[in-house]
Design a protein that fits this description.
9 helices, alpha/beta, 221 residues, four-stranded antiparallel sheet, 16% strand, TIM Barrel, single chain, three-stranded parallel sheet, 2 domains, 9 strands
Length: 221
């Protein structure tokens, strides 16, 4: 693509599971963006843990989005599961648990994804002038317990089933817990200790690695 002039800043490269150092350099120099689909890469045995260059791309500042590929390939459309794999696979490849941090994976699912799609001025983080797209996670859900670190719990422990409420452009489009006509919140087993107070994680800056904690629920864009 670089040879024929087809690799440039308006290109979104999908999958990218087999790269060498020269390929990474070409992507960086071109300004192209990347969308990775870790679940389908594993299911189709693409060798992403052998020839993927996720840490190198991230270290070079290449904007990266997360995808799930087609339903018949990944068997799910769960961005939370993609986020977990995006954090874990590079670490296993390099035998470095810090290769891609939970914060970096969360950024890929939020501002990084928006940047990869050239939408960073409108979505991707909670800032004045941007669209109020918010996903609220229920921290009473067993996926997020014990809540040691909200970002780590979200990246490594959550799934789409952990979600409580979704807002798009400030409008509630999904309310799974409570409210008229909604199923009641499941009761905790009476033999289990009461959960500590939940938290509210809101991404309020352009850098999702700088969350603020407040009382309430765990929320991320």
């Amino acid at each position: 693509m670089a040879t024929i002039g087809a690799l440039h800043s308006r290109v979104l490269l999908n999958h990218m599971t087999s790269l060498d150092d020269g390929d990474v350099q070409a992507v960086v120099e071109s300004g192209a963006r990347v969308s990775q689909n870790p679940t389908s890469a594993l299911k189709l045995a693409k060798g992403t843990t052998q020839t993927g260059k996720w840490k190198a791309l991230a270290d070079a500042g290449v904007p990266m989005a997360l995808g799930t590929d087609a339903e018949n390939v990944s068997n799910h459309q769960d961005i939370c599961r993609a986020m977990q794999l995006a954090a874990l696979l590079p670490g296993d490849m390099l035998r470095d648990p810090n290769a891609i941090s939970a914060e970096q994976a969360l950024e890929m699912a939020t501002l990084g994804g928006a940047t990869a799609l050239w939408w960073e001025d409108a979505v991707g983080s909670l800032e004045p002038g941007k669209q109020a797209d918010i996903v609220i996670f229920d921290t009473d859900n067993f996926d997020l317990r014990p809540l040691h670190n909200p970002v780590a719990n979200l990246v490594y422990g959550s799934t789409g089933h952990s979600i409580d409420t979704v807002l798009i452009g400030g409008e509630v489009v999904l309310r799974r817990r409570g409210g008229a006509g909604q199923p009641p919140r499941p009761q905790r087993d009476r033999h289990l200790p009461a959960a500590p107070p939940a938290h509210h994680l809101t991404l309020v800056s352009s850098d999702p690695r700088s969350p603020s904690l407040d009382g309430g629920r765990l929320a991320c864009l």
